């Protein structure tokens, strides 16, 4: 298949390209072609505008592009950048799909479990959950998802992937957590009771491939491991795998000083479960946190 990928140089996109390039023709839409060529397999074609792609010849679009949500404090300017980066590229894709005589049969578009907003640790959240908390992450994901879903009116199948905390040795949240833990400075965040819905990078990529290949699937999917854990349990497991103590907590007041409003991502959480993928018999390689962290860190 001929596959256009946005966000191909990101954490998920890089790994996805490594899995797909041998069997599919890949086109990476990127702002920096030289950087993309240095990161991606040689056979990936790199372009920097949607106008350089023939949407009549594409089979699948995988839309992962967007300003990282947790790299900088959430000033009003940064929040606008996070939102606009996602909506702009998605709108460009929708316009090209609309104009195509033979549009791509599938659009797989990113989102996040932040769609659900902060939730009680006692609630297991599947894809039908509607009692979402209205806050920045929820509003961001809702606008992004609704825009992507509009491609359905042009006969393009749409799958929305609500991603949890992706665990990888190549970057992301885990790369920021490990150094202080290795120095014996790790500990629970806030109360530690907030839930963390995580997923191993291999399972994340396999979910996208699964949705790409199973054309009967459509709609919204939680891309999280079947067993979310509390921050306390995550901390203890990471400490065990690294064989380091985890006795220095990070209180709310320090989180607010360091991260401002963005600290909400750390203080609050959701217990999200991949009900639709489970019912479709998707096989997770890493269902339990200990096995996932051991694979990545040992």
From TrEMBL:
Identification of the protein by name: TIGR01777 family protein
Family per record: Belongs to the NAD(P)-dependent epimerase/dehydratase family. SDR39U1 subfamily.
NAD-dependent epimerase/dehydratase domain residues: 3-215
Protein source organism: Pseudoalteromonas aurantia
Gene3D superfamilies referenced in this protein's UniProt entry, alphabetically: NAD(P)-binding Rossmann-like Domain
Cited InterPro entries: DUF1731 (IPR013549), Epimerase_deHydtase (IPR001509), NAD(P)-bd_dom_sf (IPR036291), SDR39U1 (IPR010099)
NCBIfam families named among the record's database cross-references: yfcH (TIGR01777)
Chain ranges of the DUF1731 domain: 250-296
One matching Pfam family: DUF1731
Source domain of life: Bacteria
């Amino acid at each position: 298949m001929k596959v256009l990928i946005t966000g191909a140089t990101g954490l998920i996109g890089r790994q996805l390209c490594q899995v797909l390039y041998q069997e599919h023709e890949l086109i990476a839409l990127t702002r920096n072609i030289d950087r993309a060529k240095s990161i991606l397999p040689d056979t990936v074609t790199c372009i920097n505008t949607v106008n350089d792609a023939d949407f009549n010849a594409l089979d699948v679009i995988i839309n992962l592009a967007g300003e990282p949500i947790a790299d900088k404090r959430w000033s009003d300017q940064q929040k606008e950048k996070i939102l606009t980066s996602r909506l702009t590229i998605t709108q460009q894709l929708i316009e090209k799909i609309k104009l195509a005589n033979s549009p791509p049969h599938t659009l797989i578009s990113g989102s996040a479990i932040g769609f659900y907003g902060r939730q009680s640790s006692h609630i297991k959240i599947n894809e039908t959950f509607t009692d979402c908390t209205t806050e920045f992450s929820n509003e961001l994901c809702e606008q992004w998802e609704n825009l992507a879903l509009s491609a359905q009116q042009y006969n393009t199948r749409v799958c929305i992937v609500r991603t949890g905390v992706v665990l990888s040795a190549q970057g992301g949240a885990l790369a920021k957590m490990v150094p202080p833990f290795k120095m014996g400075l790790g500990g629970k965040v806030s109360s530690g009771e907030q839930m963390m819905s995580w997923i191993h990078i291999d399972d994340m990529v396999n979910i996208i491939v699964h949705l790409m290949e199973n054309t009967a699937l459509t709609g919204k999917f939680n891309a999280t491991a079947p067993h979310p854990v509390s921050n306390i349990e995550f901390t203890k497991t990471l400490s065990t795998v690294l064989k380091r103590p985890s006795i220095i907590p990070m209180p709310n007041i320090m989180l607010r000083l360091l991260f401002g409003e963005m600290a909400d991502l750390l203080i609050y959480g959701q217990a999200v479960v991949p009900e639709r993928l489970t019912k479709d018999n998707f096989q997770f390689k890493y269902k339990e946190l200990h096995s996932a962290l051991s694979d990545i860190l040992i």
